Amino acid sequence: MLGLGGASAGAQPAPPPPVLGEVPPAWAPPKPAEVWIGQPVVWNSAWGGRWGVWINGGWISLTSNPVTGGG
Questions:
Q1: Are 34 and 57 a contacting pair, CB within 8 Å?
Q2: Percent of residues, the chain, with pLDDT higher than 90
Q3: pTM here?
Q4: Is residue 31 over pLDDT 90?
């Protein structure tokens, strides 16, 4: 019986990942949704600013750039 369940008996669940996002500026377009595929929709000021989600360390944009109107 080498270590069967011994390590997990006192283990605590991992804390939830932090929500990565910024406070949107006053000129930001309306937030398209609160969640997308189970992830919180947040503001990211990179690339001119846009709404999107962080999934597995990668950014998925949900809106276009409001400054240039492009991608």
A1: no
A2: 32
A3: 0.67
A4: yes
How many structural domains compose the chain? Answer: 1
Query: In degrees rounded to 5, what are phi and psi of residue 48?
Result: 90, -10
Residue 48 token pair? 């001119």
From the CB of residue 52, how many other CB atoms can be counted at a distance below 10 Å? 20
Token pair in block for residue 17: 């990942």
Q: Please indicate, yes or no, if residue 2 is contained in any of the structural domains.
A: no
Position 6 in a domain: no
Q: What is the pLDDT of residues 5-15, one digit of tens each?
A: 555 556 666 55
Q: Is residue 7 part of a domain?
A: no
**Domain interval for residue 25:** 20-57
Asked if the structure places residue 64 within a domain, the reply is no
Nearest to 50 by CA among 60, 65, 31: 65
